[in-house]
Design brief:
4-stranded antiparallel β-sheet; Alpha-Beta Plaits; alpha+beta
């Protein structure tokens, strides 16, 4: 398996685009993610409490530094309307170096989320 870049893509589902925008704005304003894509039109089929459910949802795709993944997960859990929301992080094994540098510039150095001193 390839070594990671130090960045992750996090995915989560939400009940609506509006909810996705609210969560996306929150985590970007708190410098926990550089970018959040809110993708409408998702249909989720899953088992919950012994029944097969089918719901319309939106998908969040969040990009951040690997060092911020736990803080990002905690924040999503704190503001998400679901009892047990999906929050799954996947390593980015390769990518545009300028884009990855931009993630650092937006989220701050390392895992602190603070602005860089230039």
């Amino acid at each position: 398996m390839a070594e990671g870049t130090g960045y992750v893509v996090v995915v989560s589902t939400v009940p609506s685009v509006e909810e996705g925008r609210r969560i996306g704005r929150d985590v970007v304003e708190n410098r926990l993610a550089a970018c959040v894509n809110v993708i409408p039109g998702l249909v989720s089929v899953y088992e919950w409490e012994g029944k097969i459910e089918e719901e319309s949802e939106a998908l969040l795709v969040l990009k951040t530094a690997e060092a911020l993944a736990d803080k990002l997960t905690e924040r999503i859990l704190a503001v998400h309307p679901y009892d047990h929301p999906e929050v799954v992080a996947m390593p980015i094994v390769s990518g545009n170096p300028k884009y990855l540098e931009w993630i650092d510039n937006v989220t701050g150095p390392g895992s602190s989320g603070e602005e860089k001193d230039e």
